[in-house]
Amino acid sequence: MAAFQGKSVLVLGGSRGIGAAIVRRFAAEGAAVTFTYAGSRDAAARLASETGSTAVQTDSADRDAVIARVRDSGPLDVLVVNSGFAVFGDALEQDPDEIDRLFRVNIHAPYHASVEAARRMPEGGRIIVIGSVNGDRMPVPGMASYALSKSALQGLARGLARDFGPRGITINIVQPGPIDTDANPEDGPMRDLMHSFMAIKRHGRPEEVAGMVAWLAGPEAGFVTGAMHTIDGAFGA
Ligand code: NDP
What we know:
Blueprint: E1 8-12, H1 17-28, E2 32-37, H2 41-51, E3 54-57, H3 63-72, E4 78-81, H4 96-120, E5 126-130, H5 144-164, E6 170-176, H6 191-196, H7 206-217, E7 227-231
Parallel strand pairs: 1-2, 1-4, 2-3, 4-5, 5-6, 6-7
Bound molecules: NADPH dihydro-nicotinamide-adenine-dinucleotide phosphate (NDP).
């Protein structure tokens, strides 16, 4: 398959988990892929060598570095913003600096990267941000900052779709439920609780999320924008 032959793709946060599956999918379909990472230098180097992609270290918490990375990537056909994390625990006990860092990575980076990418994207450009079903449903305590950050992406997509639509650029949010990654391993302590909310009682696989991202980036999705696309085994239903 070479559906993305000749296309330039940047994945923010691509060294592990869902991001790595997205890198593999686009690379397998012929795209020239660059991806960023924060700390996992070895994992990033292995993935780059396996897929023929390019790995660059860029902390998504650093606004100016994110903007420079997008700008220096040249005209992109596809931008995927995947980097993101959760801080768990009692909101009354949490370190405000850590919460602000979460907002920088999970909200500010998607906004600034999307705007910077749209400056140079050709018509037909695609922006896809990885949100979460927790933007719709937060059934447990201790994750308010994460839920807030993923809900914010819904407004980002709805608003920027209006700005970018006349230029032929789409922007969409993919909202996974529990996906088996380092951040949320299926054999972790929350497994039974999470599965109790779901109709399909298993964690999703990163490759399943990458499949939805590839469809949104492809030619069949040109009329799809400003929308949330949930892939969650009915966690949020
Ligand atoms: P992982 O923790 O397994 O991987 C996160 C990836 O993002 C890594 O490549 C990591 O780089 C990168 N990253 C994290 N912080 C930064 C940063 N500051 N700068 C640059 N890169 C960064 O997470 P998942 O694959 O599980 O999650 C990916 C996305 O999917 C996140 O946005 C998450 O919120 C979302 N999501 C995940 C779900 C799940 O159940 N797994 C469910 C719903 C949404 P490095 O390797 O260098 O640390």
